[in-house]
Design goal:
By secondary structure, the protein is α+β, with helices and mostly antiparallel strands. The protein is built from three helices and eight strands. β5 and β6 form a beta hairpin. α1 (14-21) crosses α3 (117-149).
């Protein structure tokens, strides 16, 4: 099972970073990689423990739906979402926040299992792990950009 870990420093308070990372509107939008919108469950605002969200998105040129649920939340330090339905066999995404003296470290840990057995494992090595790493890093940059532009 591949595990992707990404860490970024954000010059903003931990609460600002935590709230932005769980705001549906921050996850939504058109990027170079996806056209992602929330279509079911919580479709705006802050995700809380137990919330479901179904995303309609385009990954690798294929339009798809993915439903995840927030399964853990320790405010403002960590929350975890897990796939309920979607293209992966499974995934778990933990978002961690560590308050430093002048910044907040945001750490994403994404573990997943590809479908299609040996073909899925080959896809991981050929392109999927790199694609997902880039996707997670792009989202982290978006959180950083908004957090650092916020007046607090």
């Amino acid at each position: 099972m591949p595990i992707i870990r990404h860490e970024i420093s954000i010059h903003a308070p931990i609460q600002v970073c935590f709230d932005l990372a769980r705001t549906v509107e921050v996850h939504a939008g058109k990027t170079l990689l996806t056209k992602q919108i929330a279509i079911e469950g919580i479709t705006f605002g802050l995700m809380e423990r137990g919330d479901f969200v179904t995303w309609e998105t385009t990954h690798l040129g294929m339009k798809q739906k993915l439903t995840s649920q927030v399964i853990e939340m320790v405010k403002p330090y960590r929350f975890t979402d897990s796939m309920v339905r979607g293209a992966f066999q499974s995934f778990t995404h933990t978002h961690e926040f560590i308050e430093r003296v002048t910044e907040t470290s945001m750490i994403d840990t994404f573990s997943y299992k590809s479908p299609f057995g040996i073909l899925g494992k080959a896809a991981n090595h050929l392109f999927l792990e790199k694609y997902m790493s880039h996707f997670i890093a792009r989202h982290a940059q978006k959180v950083k950009r908004i957090a650092e532009a916020t007046k607090y």
